[in-house]
Write a structure and sequence with these properties.
The protein folds into 2 domains: about 10-85, Elongation Factor Tu (Ef-tu), domain 3 (Beta Barrel); about 105-199, Elongation Factor Tu (Ef-tu), domain 3 (Beta Barrel), CATH 2.40.30.20. Helices cover about 15% and strands about 45% of the residues. The protein is built from 3 helices and 12 strands, in the order E-E-E-E-E-H-E-E-E-E-E-E-H-E-H. The strands form 2 sheets. Strands 1-2-5-4-3-6 form a 6-stranded antiparallel β-barrel. A hairpin with a 3-residue loop joins strand 7 and strand 8 (about 120-125). The longest helix has 14 residues, at about 185-199. It is globular and about 50 Å long. It starts with 7 loop residues before the first strand and ends with a helix. The mean pLDDT is about 95.
Length: about 200
Amino acid sequence: MFSGIVTATGRVQRILRKPGSCDFVISLPEIFSDLSLGESVAVNGVCLTVTDFSKETMGVTAVAETLRLTNLGELVEKNKVNLERSITLNTRLGGHYVQGHVDGVGEILDIQRDGEAALLVKISMPPALEKYIVRKGYITLDGMSITVIETAPQWFTVTFIPHTQQVTIVNQYQKGSKINLEVDILGKYLEKWVLKKGE
């Protein structure tokens, strides 16, 4: 479980593509120095298990289902990725509950300046996710807990504040960039409960 508060980025050092999976070696910031084998780390919002690590890098594997539903299969060596370690019981929950289970991939349709420093970004969404994305609700974008500004049948908008631009991969976004989307799990639970009650 994560909070969607990304405070560090890493860089893809090596990629080993196999039939149905990809192994990644990713550089680590100093705050990951006490990483342990088997720990869960969100990479661009995807919960992955640490299979190998050193003082400066970690190894993770993305399987076929993960590659189908996320943007990890498009990564190339030297790409930067958002990183977040799983929350602990005494962690401040600054964002929202994030599972690291990506629901689909959106595409940046437009980027505009919003005032002097913020960015207003328009993002497409898979049709199946539209019902879970609501105005002023949470959404997870490449692991970042972000508030939805406006919604429409095929797209939504968000704002990235200057701090987020500085400490995440937002500063490399451009029109056409693919973004991992995870909708708020509470909406899914509520939907299932209502449907079951209706039956």
